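Sample pair:
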Amino acid sequence: MKYLRTMSHLIILLTFLVTGCTFHQTVPIVNIDNLPSIPDVKKAPLNITIYIKNEDETYELYHDLGDGMNVVYTFPSGQLVKKISPTVFLQFFDRLEVVTGKSSSAKEDLIIIPVVKDIKYENKIGLTLGEHLAKSSVEITLSDNNGTTLWEEIFNSQNIKKTKTGFFAGSKQIDLDELGKLVAESIASALGEAAKEAYKIVVQPDYAIVNIRKMISADPTNPILYQRLSSFNIRNQQYDEAITAAKRAIELKSDNAVAYYNLGTAYGRKKQYDEAIKALKKSIEINPKDSTDYDLMGRFLAEQNAYNEAAEAYKKAVELQPANIDYILSLANTYRLMGKYDDAIAAANKTIDLQTFRIGIDMAIESGYPVVKGVMEAGPAKKADILAGDKIIKIDGKSTKGWNLEQVVQSLRGASGTQVSIT
């Protein structure tokens, strides 16, 4: 009897362990064959940046196996959108760059930020058939090169299905590689829908304006909608309409810095410079850390031949973004127009330093660290076996995490023959 009681306790314990068990499995990144079907389109001649906020982001999916058993699948969602997005969006746009964790150093026309919002997976196992279905949702944010959000929307994939046949249970199940491929194809499907919409919005501004007006009809007191409407009006060179939309956005939200920036842009394009500068100053008052206001102000002041004031505006923009080559070139050109040729040359040389270091490295900041993008054949870096793709984590023993390009340049610069330790 004692033996039977012990066995019964063991059976109860084993039953509890089996019926209350949760497994954790990481789904690998796999190559996919089936990209979304894209109609033939004339590619838009634009520089597109795919901005991956967090390439290490994951998505956890809880799946019920039945009989109290569950599995939590972890998908590398950040890596998946980084891997799939370029192939999908290059079907619509001429030039594309992928960056992670920062804004691009290139002169982009449009920034696209994709984020996986949802992954669904279900299976139906029958006597001789196993059907496996995956569906994903991806949120897409479109921004212009000033960082102004033009559009946000969540796109759903089609149901992506894989069917397996057989008489044995195992032959109808799906392994991790197959699941990874199924989900990757569903993310590609969602990105394909997003790419079609992004293309229409960029190539046909009227299409975007009509859609935003529909949203405003449904939500007439939403300041963000008026702000976006003004942005598209500007892109469509409808400056009077942009002014009206920006003013309405400000009426609804008085501290809307982007609306003031749009207002300044529209007035400036109409050569109404006093109103433009007034709006930009208000935007700066609300958000003094935004360099784009100073850059635009410098441009409008220079158009009025007010070069001293333009130079001060550009210097402030450079102070806020010291590695922005466009700002420094604008400052250099303003110095040239003022006849300050030494200052102009110094500023121009700074842009050269930022683009190609004197040790022969072309570099960008990615995920918080300087990364080598190219190496000059005749430079010291080539002789030191520094390769494109190398991440520099230390210079002379100091961590480079969080550095900007100017800090990297200053640390690597030195007289001929100077030694520097790079890790």
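DSSP finds 15 helices and 13 strands in the chain.
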